[in-house]
Amino acid sequence: MQKEKISLVVFDMAGTTVNEDNVVYKTLRDAVNSLGHDFSLDTVLLVGGGKEKFQAVKDILSPVYDDPGQLEADAKVAFQYFLDHLKVAYEKLNVVAYAGAQELFGYLQKRGVKVVLNTGYNRATATSLVQKLNWEEGRDFDLLVTASDVSNSRPAPDMIVLAMERLGIDEAEKVAKVGDSIIDIEEGKAAGCGLNIGITTGAQTKDQLATANPDLIIDSLLEMKDQVKFKDSELQQI
């Protein structure tokens, strides 16, 4: 049961608000497999979904390594492969917003609800996505926070805490976190968010998201208009 009206929503990017056809995770799969492995895209999505990407590489590779030093060394090689190939992929990529994303952002902003984008990408990658969508910080959303802006990435709460500090939000109970992966939900819980929402448009299935015990699982962003009580709104409380 939602106890407080929501005054800040922190949205994940890829798989939640930004549809980039899983190019990041496909490139991540190619990167780890360039070392001679055969990880499936499903495994990469399950293990790496939502994480800072170097950490994702290490977590994907860790089951096949006994030597931590060799794991670290090979992970660095795979991560550099990932960065190099992702840059090329993004130059050609047609990036679109998920249906309802901009409508929901506008709906929230009209009610005085702050909109934050956060991501396990570094700032350069996240900024390239925002630019491809022709979104602008301060106009289409209030703040972008990336893994490279904080000391500890997901599931640590650092990105959400930073967003709250910058936007003057003192009570985590008035914050909602929305994401397409288990680690998004864990991040929101670690930050003490009053509402943690999983969405099925991206990395992980409804059943997988349910293992993190979110408050709500939705299939599209616009469902939030009917299922969440926002600041200064008359929407039905869940």
From TrEMBL:
Q: Which UniProt keywords apply?
A: Hydrolase
* SUPFAM superfamilies assigned: HAD-like (SSF56784)
Q: Mind telling me which GO cellular component terms the entry cites? A: cytosol
List the Gene Ontology MF annotations in alphabetical order.
Answer: phosphoglycolate phosphatase activity
The source's domain of life comes to Bacteria
Q: Which Pfam families match?
A: Hydrolase
What biological process terms from GO does the record include? DNA repair
NCBIfam families, per this entry?
Answer: HAD-SF-IA-v1 (TIGR01549), PhnX-like (TIGR03351)
**Name by which UniProt lists this protein:** HAD family hydrolase
Organism of origin is Flavilitoribacter nigricans (strain ATCC 23147 / DSM 23189 / NBRC 102662 / NCIMB 1420 / SS-2) (Lewinella nigricans)
